[in-house]
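Lecture 7 notes: from sequence to structure.
We start with the chain below.
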Amino acid sequence: MNKILLILQREFITRVRKPSFIIMSLLGPLLIAGGITLMIYLGMQGRSEEQVLVIDREQVIGHKLRGNDKVKFHVDNKLWTDSAFLESPFTVRVILLEDILNTPQADLFYKELPGPQAQTIIRNELEKALELAKLQSEGIDEEAYRRVRKALDMRLFDIRKVGEESLEQERAGIGFFFGYFMFIFIFLYGMQVMRGVMEEKQNRVVEVIISSVRPFQLMMGKITGIALVGFTQFILWIVVTTALVTAGSALLLKDRFDPATIAETPMTAGVKQQLQEQAVAMPDVNDVKILKALRQIDVPVVLAVFVFFFIGGYLLYSSLLAAIGSAVDSEAETQQFMFPVTLPMVLAIVVAQMAVYNPGAPAVVWCSFIPFTSPVVMMVRVVMGNVPAWQLLLSMALLVITFIGSTWLAGRIYRTGILMYGKKASWKEIGKWLFYKG
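Predicted structure tokens for the same chain:
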């Protein structure tokens, strides 16, 4: 254990002193915060106004269209040629079928593809105008229809938890976020372990170290040392990025949401009315489902399980990647061995997505036990809160046993592969290394 700690300490100190670690620790938050701030800034910028020409030859719905500051509708009952449209100031042309009431179909032509928001506004306005026209043709009073027509708010309840609305899908989405975070971290820093082993092999430093420690101790110290480097850098990124994004957002949004600034901003009566309607329609923050789902989560249990599977998954995959690093002489040779390692994690992400909509599927349950996929999949199930204790403990035990076994196997590959130079490793050759004595 003492030798493992010494190797861990050496790995940690050596790596945090490297200029690349210091540069990335500073540059990473700047890049992330800069990207987020840039997205916020671009999202605040107003899009160019879409001038939509609607060809309504029967004149049944065109006059019912209502535009806004993003989309302006212009209705005509004549069929415009393509060349006339191209020379016109209109950016979008919508042609309604002559039998639009019975065949609700419209063809949209554009000079430059309108954004998703503009497309949604155009579609919604056309549907709304079509609905009003059909009500009129059927002789139904519009106001009476509005009073009768109400959207159904269907709530889900687990019969075993009476009195508490079920938000399993929302919780599963939160669990998927945790799982995806693990996926990124495991591969990001697992690859660092593999590259670290390759560097030592190329520098021949390992020949000196391997004479005084066992391969298992060397591998365990290296994996945990690099893991601590990764955790340190990650914490630095989170703290610095959060501070930078908070400061940048506050600076950008300071004037935009200042009541005095809004009051002084010139706007049309229509825009003011639209803002008032949006404010009225804004749901109470207590009714936002994702926030309600967060309140239903057992935070201490979820965090404890997250830390366990986070560390367990990282150690498992890092041991395998370290074995690959010891078996090859260059990064180009790693490609043939990477597929069997990456495939389970990709499968875990796919199954975790499936768990969001179908948590009881056999694939979800089985993959939450298999150690190569359990860190991601079990995380989703735990956040959903429907995992029996014995299943969780069994999954944890299997992960620990598999990690110890994989580290032992990787150590046997490591002790031979790390001293092998100039010989291209194959699956058959690596199989022989597992049974070498000494």
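Points to note: Strands lie at 50-55, 71-76, 92-96, 106-110. Residues 278-282 have pLDDT under 50 and may be disordered.
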